[in-house]
């Protein structure tokens, strides 16, 4: 059951951050938040990353139905969280790739 609490906290953190970054209202359902995020990120992220983001819908559904969340799913949530919120690292990495060294 402790993994379910961790999963809930991670999903809440991701949802809260997406709402803040995308300036979305608090009353908007979580599924709609993910749809808006997918639309906003479709040119910035790979298809695999977008699929991972969409998979949060299924994890939220499992969690709300009191299904046990596995440690592997917790790891998945942490990866999605870091993927979404590594924007500064992503920008730094791109600028380093574009730099030519003599």
Descriptive terms for the model:
single chain; 102 residues; mainly alpha; disordered C terminus
Q: Could you characterize what this model shows?
A:
There is one protein chain. The protein is mostly helical. The protein has one domain. The protein contains five helices and no strands. Helix 1 (2-22) packs across helix 2, helix 2 (30-41) packs antiparallel against helix 3 (47-64) and helix 3 (47-64) packs across helix 4. The protein is globular.
Write the layout of secondary structure elements.
Layout: H1 2-22, H2 30-41, H3 47-64, H4 71-84, H5 87-98
Helicity, in percent? over 70%
If you average the pLDDT, what whole number results?
A: 86
How far is the first residue's CA from the last residue's CA? Answer: 55 Å
Gyration radius, in Å: 15 Å
Write down the domain tally: 1
Order of helices and strands: HHHHH
Low-confidence stretches: 88-102
Share in β-strands: under 5%
Q: Give the helix/strand class.
A: mainly alpha
How many helices in DSSP terms?
5
- Strand elements, count: 0
Q: Looking at the structure, what is the overall shape?
A: globular
The biggest beta sheet is recorded as: none
Give a summary of the structure in a few sentences.
This protein has 5 helices and no strands. It has 102 residues and is mainly α.
């Amino acid at each position: 059951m402790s993994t379910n609490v961790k999963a809930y906290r991670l999903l809440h953190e991701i949802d809260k951050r997406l709402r803040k970054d995308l300036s979305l209202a608090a009353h908007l359902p979580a599924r709609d938040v993910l749809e808006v995020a997918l639309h906003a990120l479709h040119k910035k992220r790979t298809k695999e990353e977008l699929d991972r983001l969409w998979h949060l819908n299924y994890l939220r559904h499992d969690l709300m139905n009191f299904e046990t969340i596995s440690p592997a799913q917790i790891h998945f949530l942490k990866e999605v969280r870091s993927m979404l919120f590594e924007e500064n690292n992503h920008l730094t990495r791109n600028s380093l790739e574009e730099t030519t060294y003599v």
